[in-house]
Amino acid sequence: MILPRPVSFTRGDGEVPFDGTFQVERVAGPAEGYRLSVSAAGVRVRASDDAGEFYARQTLRQLSGPAAFRAVPPGAVALPVCEVEDHPRFAWRGVMLDVARHFLPKHDLLRYVDLLAVHKLNVLHLHLTDDQGWRFESRRFPRLHEVGGWRPDSRFGDRRSGGLAGRPHGGYYTQDDLREVVAYAAQRQITVVPEVDVPGHSQAAIAAYPELGVSGGGVWTDWGVNPNVLRADESTVDFYRQVFDELLDVFPAEVIGLGGDEAAGGDGRFVRRIAQHLHQRGRRPFGWDEVLGVGPLPARTIVASWRGEEPGLTALDRGHDVVMCPEEHVYLDYRQSDHPDEPIPVGTVTTLEDVYRYEPAAADRVLGAQANLWTEHLDSPRRLDYAAFPRLCAFAEVVWSPAERDEAEFLARLAEHHLPRLDALGVEYRPLAGPRPWQALPGVPGHPR
Protein backbone atom coordinates (compact mmCIF):
# COMPACT_ATOMS: atom_id res chain seq x y z
CA MET A 1 0.00 0.00 0.00
CA ILE A 2 3.03 2.30 0.32
CA LEU A 3 4.35 4.06 -2.79
CA PRO A 4 7.22 4.17 -3.53
CA ARG A 5 7.68 0.65 -2.17
CA PRO A 6 9.83 0.54 1.00
CA VAL A 7 12.80 -1.73 1.56
CA SER A 8 10.63 -3.87 3.81
CA PHE A 9 7.04 -3.80 5.06
CA THR A 10 5.77 -6.29 7.63
CA ARG A 11 2.06 -6.25 8.44
CA GLY A 12 0.90 -7.30 11.86
CA ASP A 13 -2.55 -8.10 13.22
CA GLY A 14 -5.13 -5.40 13.78
CA GLU A 15 -5.12 -1.62 13.77
CA VAL A 16 -4.32 1.10 16.30
CA PRO A 17 -5.69 4.63 16.64
CA PHE A 18 -3.42 7.46 15.48
CA ASP A 19 -3.91 11.13 16.31
CA GLY A 20 -0.87 12.39 14.41
CA THR A 21 1.62 12.26 17.27
CA PHE A 22 4.57 9.89 17.44
CA GLN A 23 7.99 9.45 19.00
CA VAL A 24 11.08 10.32 16.98
CA GLU A 25 14.70 9.51 17.64
CA ARG A 26 17.87 9.81 15.59
CA VAL A 27 19.77 6.61 14.87
CA ALA A 28 22.66 5.65 12.64
CA GLY A 29 21.62 4.38 9.24
CA PRO A 30 21.53 5.10 5.51
CA ALA A 31 21.08 8.73 4.46
CA GLU A 32 17.40 9.73 4.22
CA GLY A 33 16.43 6.44 5.85
CA TYR A 34 13.95 5.63 8.59
CA ARG A 35 12.38 2.78 10.52
CA LEU A 36 8.72 3.01 11.43
CA SER A 37 6.94 0.93 14.04
CA VAL A 38 3.17 0.95 14.58
CA SER A 39 2.04 -1.11 17.54
CA ALA A 40 -0.31 -1.05 20.52
CA ALA A 41 2.42 0.92 22.31
CA GLY A 42 2.11 3.74 19.77
CA VAL A 43 3.95 5.01 16.71
CA ARG A 44 7.70 5.25 16.78
CA VAL A 45 10.06 6.65 14.11
CA ARG A 46 13.81 6.12 14.15
CA ALA A 47 15.34 8.31 11.46
CA SER A 48 18.87 8.77 10.17
CA ASP A 49 18.39 12.50 9.57
CA ASP A 50 15.78 15.20 8.97
CA ALA A 51 15.03 13.81 5.52
CA GLY A 52 14.40 10.36 6.95
CA GLU A 53 11.96 11.80 9.46
CA PHE A 54 10.18 13.69 6.69
CA TYR A 55 9.80 10.55 4.58
CA ALA A 56 8.52 8.63 7.58
CA ARG A 57 5.83 11.29 7.89
CA GLN A 58 4.93 10.76 4.23
CA THR A 59 4.59 7.04 4.84
CA LEU A 60 2.39 7.63 7.87
CA ARG A 61 0.24 9.89 5.72
CA GLN A 62 -0.17 7.10 3.19
CA LEU A 63 -1.02 4.57 5.88
CA SER A 64 -3.70 6.98 7.18
CA GLY A 65 -5.81 6.58 4.03
CA PRO A 66 -6.61 8.81 1.02
CA ALA A 67 -8.51 11.36 3.10
CA ALA A 68 -5.20 12.30 4.75
CA PHE A 69 -4.25 13.96 1.44
CA ARG A 70 -7.17 16.36 1.43
CA ALA A 71 -6.74 20.02 2.32
CA VAL A 72 -8.58 19.36 5.58
CA PRO A 73 -7.50 15.87 6.64
CA PRO A 74 -9.46 13.80 9.16
CA GLY A 75 -8.62 13.82 12.85
CA ALA A 76 -7.79 10.51 14.45
CA VAL A 77 -7.42 7.57 12.08
CA ALA A 78 -6.59 3.89 12.42
CA LEU A 79 -3.19 2.65 11.27
CA PRO A 80 -2.35 -0.96 10.50
CA VAL A 81 0.04 -2.60 12.92
CA CYS A 82 3.26 -2.79 10.93
CA GLU A 83 7.02 -2.42 10.77
CA VAL A 84 8.61 -0.45 7.92
CA GLU A 85 12.30 -0.16 7.11
CA ASP A 86 13.11 2.22 4.31
CA HIS A 87 15.76 4.30 2.60
CA PRO A 88 16.25 5.49 -1.00
CA ARG A 89 18.23 3.65 -3.63
CA PHE A 90 19.55 6.82 -5.34
CA ALA A 91 20.65 10.18 -3.97
CA TRP A 92 19.32 12.12 -7.01
CA ARG A 93 15.61 11.50 -7.54
CA GLY A 94 14.68 14.32 -9.82
CA VAL A 95 12.09 15.91 -12.05
CA MET A 96 12.91 18.49 -14.69
CA LEU A 97 10.06 20.94 -15.17
CA ASP A 98 10.22 23.18 -18.24
CA VAL A 99 8.61 26.48 -17.22
CA ALA A 100 10.17 28.31 -20.18
CA ARG A 101 8.02 26.97 -23.02
CA HIS A 102 4.86 27.41 -20.96
CA PHE A 103 4.96 29.43 -17.77
CA LEU A 104 3.61 27.70 -14.68
CA PRO A 105 2.22 30.25 -12.20
CA LYS A 106 3.84 30.24 -8.78
CA HIS A 107 0.82 28.74 -7.04
CA ASP A 108 0.94 25.74 -9.38
CA LEU A 109 4.71 25.46 -9.07
CA LEU A 110 4.38 25.21 -5.29
CA ARG A 111 1.72 22.55 -5.79
CA TYR A 112 4.20 20.54 -7.86
CA VAL A 113 6.71 20.78 -5.05
CA ASP A 114 4.08 19.16 -2.83
CA LEU A 115 3.46 16.42 -5.39
CA LEU A 116 7.16 15.63 -5.61
CA ALA A 117 7.34 15.44 -1.82
CA VAL A 118 4.43 12.98 -1.71
CA HIS A 119 6.47 10.69 -3.96
CA LYS A 120 9.74 11.08 -2.03
CA LEU A 121 11.43 12.83 -4.97
CA ASN A 122 14.13 15.25 -3.88
CA VAL A 123 15.33 17.36 -6.85
CA LEU A 124 13.28 19.90 -8.81
CA HIS A 125 15.26 20.93 -11.88
CA LEU A 126 13.73 24.18 -13.17
CA HIS A 127 14.37 24.91 -16.86
CA LEU A 128 13.98 28.69 -16.54
CA THR A 129 15.07 29.98 -19.97
CA ASP A 130 14.70 28.96 -23.58
CA ASP A 131 13.99 30.38 -27.03
CA GLN A 132 10.32 30.80 -26.14
CA GLY A 133 10.63 32.56 -22.80
CA TRP A 134 12.80 33.91 -19.98
CA ARG A 135 11.28 33.25 -16.54
CA PHE A 136 13.91 34.61 -14.10
CA GLU A 137 13.77 38.23 -12.97
CA SER A 138 17.09 39.93 -13.66
CA ARG A 139 17.57 43.17 -11.77
CA ARG A 140 20.81 43.90 -13.61
CA PHE A 141 19.33 43.31 -17.07
CA PRO A 142 15.57 43.82 -16.69
CA ARG A 143 14.79 43.50 -20.39
CA LEU A 144 15.51 39.78 -20.04
CA HIS A 145 12.22 39.24 -18.24
CA GLU A 146 10.36 42.35 -19.41
CA VAL A 147 10.91 41.56 -23.11
CA GLY A 148 12.12 37.96 -23.06
CA GLY A 149 9.34 36.86 -20.74
CA TRP A 150 6.62 37.27 -23.39
CA ARG A 151 6.01 35.94 -26.87
CA PRO A 152 3.32 37.10 -29.29
CA ASP A 153 2.07 33.63 -30.24
CA SER A 154 2.70 29.89 -29.95
CA ARG A 155 2.58 26.94 -32.27
CA PHE A 156 -0.76 25.15 -32.42
CA GLY A 157 0.20 21.58 -31.63
CA ASP A 158 3.18 20.11 -33.45
CA ARG A 159 5.41 22.61 -35.27
CA ARG A 160 5.16 20.70 -38.56
CA SER A 161 1.51 21.71 -38.87
CA GLY A 162 2.57 25.32 -39.36
CA GLY A 163 -0.40 26.59 -37.36
CA LEU A 164 -0.38 29.18 -34.59
CA ALA A 165 -2.63 29.39 -31.55
CA GLY A 166 -3.33 33.10 -32.02
CA ARG A 167 -2.65 34.31 -28.48
CA PRO A 168 0.33 35.76 -26.60
CA HIS A 169 1.92 33.85 -23.76
CA GLY A 170 4.32 34.72 -20.98
CA GLY A 171 5.18 35.35 -17.38
CA TYR A 172 8.19 35.28 -15.09
CA TYR A 173 9.10 34.66 -11.46
CA THR A 174 10.44 37.50 -9.37
CA GLN A 175 13.54 36.76 -7.36
CA ASP A 176 11.41 36.86 -4.23
CA ASP A 177 9.02 34.34 -5.81
CA LEU A 178 11.89 31.97 -6.45
CA ARG A 179 13.36 32.41 -2.97
CA GLU A 180 9.93 31.43 -1.68
CA VAL A 181 9.87 28.34 -3.90
CA VAL A 182 13.37 27.37 -2.73
CA ALA A 183 12.43 27.74 0.94
CA TYR A 184 9.13 25.90 0.47
CA ALA A 185 10.92 23.05 -1.28
CA ALA A 186 13.65 22.88 1.38
CA GLN A 187 10.98 22.32 4.05
CA ARG A 188 9.98 19.27 2.00
CA GLN A 189 13.55 17.96 1.55
CA ILE A 190 13.66 19.06 -2.10
CA THR A 191 16.58 20.88 -3.69
CA VAL A 192 15.72 23.29 -6.49
CA VAL A 193 18.32 23.22 -9.27
CA PRO A 194 17.92 26.20 -11.64
CA GLU A 195 18.96 26.15 -15.28
CA VAL A 196 19.80 29.06 -17.58
CA ASP A 197 20.47 27.50 -20.98
CA VAL A 198 23.53 28.60 -23.00
CA PRO A 199 24.69 29.05 -25.74
CA GLY A 200 21.67 27.69 -27.64
CA HIS A 201 17.99 27.95 -26.72
CA SER A 202 18.68 31.63 -26.03
CA GLN A 203 16.37 33.49 -28.41
CA ALA A 204 14.36 35.09 -25.59
CA ALA A 205 17.56 36.69 -24.25
CA ILE A 206 18.61 37.74 -27.75
CA ALA A 207 15.22 39.37 -28.31
CA ALA A 208 15.85 41.46 -25.19
CA TYR A 209 19.49 42.29 -25.99
CA PRO A 210 20.13 41.71 -29.72
CA GLU A 211 23.88 42.24 -29.37
CA LEU A 212 24.06 38.89 -27.54
CA GLY A 213 23.13 36.81 -30.57
CA VAL A 214 24.74 35.74 -33.80
CA SER A 215 21.60 37.12 -35.44
CA GLY A 216 18.59 39.02 -34.10
CA GLY A 217 14.87 38.30 -33.94
CA GLY A 218 12.10 38.27 -31.38
CA VAL A 219 11.06 35.76 -28.76
CA TRP A 220 10.52 32.56 -30.68
CA THR A 221 6.97 31.37 -31.40
CA ASP A 222 8.11 28.02 -32.82
CA TRP A 223 9.14 24.76 -31.18
CA GLY A 224 12.21 22.74 -32.05
CA VAL A 225 15.86 23.78 -32.35
CA ASN A 226 16.57 27.41 -33.17
CA PRO A 227 19.83 27.82 -35.14
CA ASN A 228 20.49 31.24 -33.59
CA VAL A 229 22.95 31.01 -30.67
CA LEU A 230 24.81 33.37 -28.40
CA ARG A 231 27.92 35.12 -29.63
CA ALA A 232 31.05 33.73 -28.01
CA ASP A 233 32.81 37.06 -27.55
CA GLU A 234 34.04 38.27 -24.18
CA SER A 235 31.26 40.82 -23.68
CA THR A 236 28.56 38.15 -24.01
CA VAL A 237 30.37 35.78 -21.67
CA ASP A 238 30.72 38.60 -19.14
CA PHE A 239 27.00 39.42 -19.50
CA TYR A 240 26.13 35.84 -18.60
CA ARG A 241 28.59 35.73 -15.73
CA GLN A 242 26.57 38.55 -14.20
CA VAL A 243 23.29 36.75 -14.92
CA PHE A 244 24.56 33.59 -13.26
CA ASP A 245 25.77 35.62 -10.28
CA GLU A 246 22.20 36.83 -9.82
CA LEU A 247 21.02 33.24 -10.08
CA LEU A 248 23.47 32.18 -7.37
CA ASP A 249 22.13 34.88 -5.07
CA VAL A 250 18.65 33.37 -5.31
CA PHE A 251 19.41 29.64 -5.44
CA PRO A 252 21.62 28.21 -2.68
CA ALA A 253 21.84 24.80 -4.39
CA GLU A 254 25.32 23.45 -4.92
CA VAL A 255 24.30 22.38 -8.44
CA ILE A 256 23.54 25.01 -11.10
CA GLY A 257 22.36 24.18 -14.64
CA LEU A 258 23.94 25.80 -17.70
CA GLY A 259 22.22 23.80 -20.45
CA GLY A 260 24.68 23.30 -23.30
CA ASP A 261 22.28 21.28 -25.44
CA GLU A 262 21.22 21.46 -29.08
CA ALA A 263 23.39 24.47 -29.92
CA ALA A 264 23.83 24.22 -33.68
CA GLY A 265 27.22 25.78 -34.30
CA GLY A 266 27.48 26.66 -30.62
CA ASP A 267 30.85 27.56 -29.18
CA GLY A 268 32.24 25.18 -26.59
CA ARG A 269 34.43 27.97 -25.26
CA PHE A 270 31.29 29.71 -24.01
CA VAL A 271 30.13 26.65 -22.05
CA ARG A 272 33.59 26.02 -20.65
CA ARG A 273 33.95 29.57 -19.36
CA ILE A 274 30.54 29.62 -17.71
CA ALA A 275 31.26 26.22 -16.15
CA GLN A 276 34.56 27.53 -14.83
CA HIS A 277 32.82 30.63 -13.46
CA LEU A 278 30.34 28.46 -11.53
CA HIS A 279 33.21 26.30 -10.28
CA GLN A 280 35.08 29.38 -9.04
CA ARG A 281 31.93 30.45 -7.17
CA GLY A 282 31.91 27.13 -5.34
CA ARG A 283 29.07 25.56 -7.30
CA ARG A 284 28.83 22.44 -9.46
CA PRO A 285 27.99 23.00 -13.16
CA PHE A 286 25.20 20.77 -14.45
CA GLY A 287 24.80 20.33 -18.20
CA TRP A 288 23.06 18.18 -20.77
CA ASP A 289 25.28 15.51 -22.26
CA GLU A 290 26.37 17.64 -25.23
CA VAL A 291 28.76 19.37 -22.82
CA LEU A 292 31.00 16.33 -23.15
CA GLY A 293 31.97 17.64 -26.60
CA VAL A 294 33.05 21.17 -25.62
CA GLY A 295 36.48 20.34 -24.24
CA PRO A 296 37.82 20.13 -20.67
CA LEU A 297 35.28 20.93 -17.96
CA PRO A 298 35.69 21.22 -14.19
CA ALA A 299 35.92 17.72 -12.76
CA ARG A 300 32.89 18.34 -10.53
CA THR A 301 30.61 19.02 -13.53
CA ILE A 302 27.49 16.82 -13.49
CA VAL A 303 26.25 15.43 -16.80
CA ALA A 304 22.57 14.79 -17.53
CA SER A 305 22.48 11.92 -20.03
CA TRP A 306 19.39 12.48 -22.20
CA ARG A 307 20.44 11.19 -25.64
CA GLY A 308 20.39 7.62 -24.41
CA GLU A 309 22.70 6.28 -21.71
CA GLU A 310 25.95 5.95 -23.67
CA PRO A 311 26.88 9.61 -23.08
CA GLY A 312 26.39 9.04 -19.37
CA LEU A 313 28.69 6.04 -19.43
CA THR A 314 31.28 8.12 -21.27
CA ALA A 315 30.95 10.84 -18.64
CA LEU A 316 31.49 8.31 -15.87
CA ASP A 317 34.64 7.09 -17.59
CA ARG A 318 35.88 10.69 -17.66
CA GLY A 319 35.31 11.07 -13.95
CA HIS A 320 32.08 13.08 -13.97
CA ASP A 321 29.01 12.43 -11.86
CA VAL A 322 25.97 11.47 -13.95
CA VAL A 323 22.20 11.77 -13.78
CA MET A 324 20.45 9.40 -16.17
CA CYS A 325 17.43 10.87 -17.99
CA PRO A 326 17.27 9.13 -21.40
CA GLU A 327 14.45 10.36 -23.61
CA GLU A 328 13.34 6.87 -24.65
CA HIS A 329 12.56 5.98 -21.03
CA VAL A 330 11.73 9.06 -18.91
CA TYR A 331 10.48 11.88 -21.16
CA LEU A 332 6.99 12.22 -19.73
CA ASP A 333 5.77 14.65 -22.39
CA TYR A 334 5.86 11.74 -24.87
CA ARG A 335 2.56 10.04 -25.68
CA GLN A 336 1.31 7.42 -23.27
CA SER A 337 -0.31 5.02 -25.75
CA ASP A 338 -1.47 4.54 -29.32
CA HIS A 339 -5.01 5.35 -28.17
CA PRO A 340 -6.69 7.50 -30.88
CA ASP A 341 -7.81 10.03 -28.27
CA GLU A 342 -4.31 10.56 -26.83
CA PRO A 343 -3.97 14.37 -26.75
CA ILE A 344 -1.26 15.91 -29.00
CA PRO A 345 0.58 12.61 -29.56
CA VAL A 346 4.28 13.39 -29.88
CA GLY A 347 7.39 11.26 -29.52
CA THR A 348 7.50 7.53 -28.98
CA VAL A 349 4.97 5.63 -26.90
CA THR A 350 6.13 5.65 -23.27
CA THR A 351 3.60 3.79 -21.18
CA LEU A 352 3.25 3.61 -17.43
CA GLU A 353 4.68 0.11 -17.60
CA ASP A 354 7.61 1.29 -19.73
CA VAL A 355 8.57 3.81 -17.07
CA TYR A 356 8.24 1.22 -14.32
CA ARG A 357 10.56 -1.16 -16.20
CA TYR A 358 13.32 1.42 -16.58
CA GLU A 359 16.57 0.43 -14.90
CA PRO A 360 19.30 3.10 -14.97
CA ALA A 361 22.55 1.91 -16.51
CA ALA A 362 25.57 1.78 -14.19
CA ALA A 363 23.14 2.05 -11.28
CA ASP A 364 25.89 1.52 -8.72
CA ARG A 365 27.91 4.46 -10.11
CA VAL A 366 25.45 7.21 -11.05
CA LEU A 367 24.02 9.88 -8.77
CA GLY A 368 20.55 8.82 -9.83
CA ALA A 369 17.97 9.64 -12.46
CA GLN A 370 15.35 12.20 -13.30
CA ALA A 371 12.16 12.35 -15.35
CA ASN A 372 11.81 15.26 -17.78
CA LEU A 373 8.62 17.22 -18.48
CA TRP A 374 9.08 19.46 -21.53
CA THR A 375 6.07 21.72 -21.97
CA GLU A 376 5.76 22.66 -25.63
CA HIS A 377 2.44 20.77 -25.59
CA LEU A 378 1.68 21.08 -21.87
CA ASP A 379 0.21 24.57 -21.71
CA SER A 380 -1.70 24.34 -18.42
CA PRO A 381 -1.55 22.64 -15.03
CA ARG A 382 -4.25 20.22 -16.21
CA ARG A 383 -2.18 19.15 -19.20
CA LEU A 384 0.88 18.83 -16.97
CA ASP A 385 -1.02 16.58 -14.56
CA TYR A 386 -2.16 14.38 -17.44
CA ALA A 387 1.36 13.91 -18.79
CA ALA A 388 3.05 13.43 -15.43
CA PHE A 389 0.69 11.11 -13.60
CA PRO A 390 0.60 8.25 -12.93
CA ARG A 391 3.89 7.73 -14.83
CA LEU A 392 5.72 9.87 -12.28
CA CYS A 393 4.47 7.47 -9.58
CA ALA A 394 6.21 4.64 -11.42
CA PHE A 395 9.39 6.68 -11.81
CA ALA A 396 9.39 7.53 -8.10
CA GLU A 397 9.45 3.82 -7.30
CA VAL A 398 12.27 3.20 -9.80
CA VAL A 399 14.57 5.72 -8.09
CA TRP A 400 13.58 5.06 -4.46
CA SER A 401 12.87 1.35 -4.15
CA PRO A 402 15.09 -1.73 -4.42
CA ALA A 403 15.92 -2.83 -7.96
CA GLU A 404 13.75 -5.96 -7.82
CA ARG A 405 10.28 -5.03 -9.02
CA ASP A 406 6.94 -6.79 -9.44
CA GLU A 407 4.97 -4.98 -12.13
CA ALA A 408 1.64 -6.66 -11.42
CA GLU A 409 1.94 -5.92 -7.71
CA PHE A 410 2.80 -2.29 -8.45
CA LEU A 411 -0.18 -1.83 -10.77
CA ALA A 412 -2.52 -3.33 -8.20
CA ARG A 413 -1.11 -1.16 -5.42
CA LEU A 414 -1.32 1.92 -7.65
CA ALA A 415 -4.95 1.32 -8.60
CA GLU A 416 -6.22 0.32 -5.17
CA HIS A 417 -4.29 2.66 -2.90
CA HIS A 418 -2.42 5.42 -4.71
CA LEU A 419 -4.80 6.71 -7.38
CA PRO A 420 -7.35 7.50 -4.62
CA ARG A 421 -4.62 9.62 -2.99
CA LEU A 422 -4.12 11.51 -6.26
CA ASP A 423 -7.90 11.97 -6.44
CA ALA A 424 -7.86 13.48 -2.94
CA LEU A 425 -5.03 15.80 -3.99
CA GLY A 426 -6.99 16.93 -7.06
CA VAL A 427 -4.47 15.57 -9.58
CA GLU A 428 -6.04 15.21 -13.04
CA TYR A 429 -4.03 12.15 -13.99
CA ARG A 430 -4.52 9.93 -17.03
CA PRO A 431 -6.77 6.99 -16.08
CA LEU A 432 -5.20 3.58 -16.58
CA ALA A 433 -7.82 2.74 -19.23
CA GLY A 434 -7.15 5.85 -21.32
CA PRO A 435 -8.00 9.55 -21.44
CA ARG A 436 -11.29 10.90 -20.22
CA PRO A 437 -13.35 12.65 -22.93
CA TRP A 438 -12.36 16.10 -21.69
CA GLN A 439 -8.67 15.16 -21.67
CA ALA A 440 -8.63 14.51 -25.42
CA LEU A 441 -7.78 17.42 -27.73
CA PRO A 442 -9.30 16.55 -31.10
CA GLY A 443 -7.97 18.61 -33.98
CA VAL A 444 -4.73 19.64 -32.29
CA PRO A 445 -1.99 18.06 -34.46
CA GLY A 446 0.74 15.90 -33.01
CA HIS A 447 3.69 14.05 -34.55
CA PRO A 448 3.92 10.48 -33.24
CA ARG A 449 7.06 8.47 -33.80
Report on this model:
Helices cover about 30% and strands about 20% of the residues. The chain folds into two domains: about 10-85, Chitobiase/beta-hexosaminidase domain 2-like (Chitobiase, domain 2); about 90-400 and about 425-440, Glycosidases (TIM Barrel). Strands 6-7-12-13-14-15-16-18 form an eight-stranded parallel barrel, surrounded by six helices. Helix 7 (about 270-280) links the parallel strand 13 (about 255-260) and strand 14 (about 285-290). The protein is an alpha/beta fold. The protein has helices spanning about 50-65, 105-120, 145, 175-185, 205-210, 235-250, 270-280, 310-315, 325-330, 350-355, 380-390, 390-400, 405-425; strands at about 10-20, 25, 35-40, 40-45, 75-85, 90-100, 125, 130, 135, 150, 170, 190-200, 255-260, 285-290, 300-305, 320-325, 345, 370-375, 445-449. The chain starts with 7 loop residues before the first strand and ends with a strand.
